[in-house]
Amino acid sequence: MHRRLSVLMILAVTAALGRPTAGAERLPHLDPERLEWSRIELRASKLTVTARSAVEIHRQSASGAIARWLRPPTEQPIMPNGDDVVRVGLQSAVLGKLSELELWLDPVTAGAFQRIQLETGKKVRHHRHRSLRFTAGGVFNATHRATEETVDRPYREWDLSETFEAYPDRLPPGTVVSEPSGLFYLLAAGDLDRPGASLSTYVFSKGRVMKVDLTVWETTSIKVGYTEVSSTGSREVKGRQEVMRILLAGRALGEGGSNRDFEFLGLRGDVEIYLERTRRIPVLITGDIRYVGKGKVRLQRVDLD
pLDDT tens digits for 4-60? Predict the structure, then answer.
């Protein structure tokens, strides 16, 4: 089990990153000690389409992570204050398109430092490498895109474009901003252990800042079937399991913001997550799939920490 972060470290991180300030909302109460799994494998099927994903979460030294992060030419990037950061890895495959994503977070607030994503596929336009570096005032975006001439070369030889997306004025000053993949960490480390419990966070997604509310609606039981792997071996988990039904409701800031703007793992609208109570493992995720309708993502395997 990872060592518990002290109250002094929490205060130091909060102060160093300039939060909270007047007008900022209360930060989620996250405890890295709650994290009891290190990897999950998920599968979704709808009609003739199957999508597979794998999520990994682990602690990493800040110094090792920083060496891979962007240095924006003008904006001051957010930097970690402690010795460790949280790394979230997300790999997915659907319809011949592959995605490999890495995200680094603050272990106490889930604030994002940097995201890197490499996308490839059958067509040249599917090949893209995007790096997002989070700053106090917005997100610096460096995107490499392949052409017919460069698609077989390393991404650093692809065409590069750089932009900066400033946060909207209505975002409370000093607000911590995360990224959708970071919600896996919030679910594992957040104080969501009883009906009525809730927390809110902000995420940067597709060029927009969104407010996401996570609320435990009820405790229920659902049918599951997955493999559980630990240091002592593996076992098949089948039958009905007690879970917490959690609603993720996201809405973009600004005029015309809608819950249809929010996406999590390819699911849109009001996403529901069914979380195994003891180890906070997402065993089922439901939501709408664009042009298809209701979709379900089911747990196939979990590796315990």
Answer: 333 333 333 333 333 334 344 545 679 999 999 999 999 998 777 889 999 999 999
Rounded to 5°, angle at Cα 229 from 284 and 46: 30
Q: Where are the beta strands (DSSP E) in 155-197?
A: 159-166, 177-178
Assess whether the previous peptide bond of 20 is cis (omega < 30° from 0): yes
15 within domain boundaries: no
Let me know how long the chain is: 305
Residue carrying the six token digits 């996308």: 119
b or e along 234-255 (b: 16 or more beta carbons within 10 Å of the residue's beta carbon)?
eeebeeebebbbbebbbebbee
Q: Assess if residue 8 is contained within a domain.
A: no
Asked if residue 298 lies in contact with residue 44, where contact means CB atoms within 8 angstroms, the answer is yes
Alpha helices (H) in the chain, listed in sequence order: 7-16, 62-66, 183-189
Render the burial of 173-204: b for 16+ CB within 10 Å, e for the rest: ebbbbbbbbbbbbbbbbbebeeeeeebebbbb
In 111-252, DSSP assigns E strands to: 112-120, 128-134, 138-145, 159-166, 177-178, 198-205, 208-230, 233-252
Which domain does 142 fall in, by range?
A: 21-304
Q: Do 219 and 277 form a contact (C-beta atoms < 8 A)?
A: yes
Tally of domains within the chain = 1
Q: Which residues of 264-292 are buried (b: 16+ CB within 10 A; e: fewer)?
A: bbbbbbebbbbbbeeebbbbbbbbbbeee
> 240-281: per-residue pLDDT in tens?
999 999 999 998 887 655 555 688 988 888 899 999 988 999
pLDDT digits (tens, 9 = 90+) for 50-80: 899 999 999 999 999 999 999 998 889 999 9
